[in-house]
Amino acid sequence: MTKVIGLTGGIGSGKTTIANYFNEMGVPVYIADDGAKRVMQSHEILEEVKAAFGNNIFDGEVLNRAKLAQIVFNDKEQLAKLNAIVHPGVKRDFEAWMQGYRNYDYVIYEAAILFESGRYKECDVIITVTAPEEIRIERVIQRDKTTREQVLSRMKMQWNDEKRISKSNFVINNDNLKIAKEEVVKILKILNIKQNQS
Questions:
Q1: Burial code of 156-189, b = ≥16 C-beta within 10 A, e = fewer?
Q2: Which residue ranges are tagged as binding site for ATP?
Q3: Which domain does 94 fall in, by range?
Q4: Are strands 58-59 and 62-63 parallel, antiparallel or unpaired?
Q5: Domain-embedded: residue 114
Q6: Which bin fits 110, alpha (ψ -120 to 50), beta or left (φ > 0)?
């Protein structure tokens, strides 16, 4: 039975970089954000989003993600409403993806809101990626071409590191990539996962 490693961390912690490193080391990685994007292309889901948030977040038939983000990242109730539509679809997408990796001992499920969504309960092992707040803010401003205020409001919607760490088996501090990679190798050894030698 394939075990699931939940990999999480706050916005800007660099968890996707860590996920990619696990992937290079031979552990298959599922990125929940990518799954959510696939799910959000489904006509059925888009209709549910339209019913929940109205036509004004659509440009014709196309979902305006920026408008939707503006609504949900400033209001916990609206975010919960969106998650209730998207999460069941992501769960189905992940289960379908898992079918291709049934011969692996471990796969990684990478999600920013692993705890907030309750999906952590379905993981066998949990890793939290951390980084100092200022580094995280800078990373997101550069990556998303956004403002400090918007980053801080998104951070407020997520659990803090302390809360995440209290429910995690491992913590990777990702302010220095070389050291963070060494942590990945240590975790692989502890879990007895064969590393990709290629």
A1: ebbbebeebeeebebbbbbeeeeebbebbeebbe
A2: 12-17
A3: 40-100
A4: antiparallel
A5: yes
A6: beta
73 pLDDT band, cuts 50/70/90, is confident
Instruction: List C-alpha distances in Å: 157 to 22, 53, 61.
Output: 27, 19, 29
Q: How many other β-carbons are positioned within 10 Å of the β-carbon of residue 9?
A: 28
What predicted TM-score, i.e. pTM, was given to this entire model?
0.90
Please say which residue of 100, 130, 147 terminates a domain.
100
Annotated binding site: 12-17
Please tell me whether residue 12 adopts helix, strand or coil conformation: coil
Provide the number of structural domains found in the chain: 2
Across 69-88, average pLDDT: 90
Q: Are residues 54 and 78 in the same domain?
A: yes
Q: Has residue 197 been placed in a domain?
A: no
